[in-house]
Design goal:
About 20% of the residues lie in helices and about 45% in strands. The chain has one helix and nine strands, in the order αβββββββββ.
Amino acid sequence: MKKHLLLFAFSALALTSCEDDDVQGYELDMLKGEWKTVKTEVISGKDNTTALQTYTPTGCATKSITEFRPDYYASYTDFSGVGAECTSQKSEGTYTYSNESKELVTKYINDNENKYKVIILSNTELRLMQMFGNVDVNGDMVIDYTYTTYKR
């Protein structure tokens, strides 16, 4: 009986010690790939639901791509211009992600680290809350937050 209890205890320990790695790997697998920005919103910090400003990319900006790879490489290709005359500029760097805190940190070459909180992460949608440079947009003395939604 003691052998069975000991075996059960070691099995439980082994299974729980791998759980975080499995979740981290699963979420990194969902994060990898190319993402297009579909909407950026400034949301009231007071109620965390009221949209104060909304920006939907148009024209060349609809081609802009954010990419994450499993080797912690990140890139952002920004498209700008008028009409069919689009130009692009690519920024490359690295990222870190914690499945426990849901914190995503990007560090592009010649730029500061930028922290985000992952609100939604699925195979088709990524929604990030910007954790830097937020200001009080509506004058209510409460910091408002920028949320960006991406789709594949």
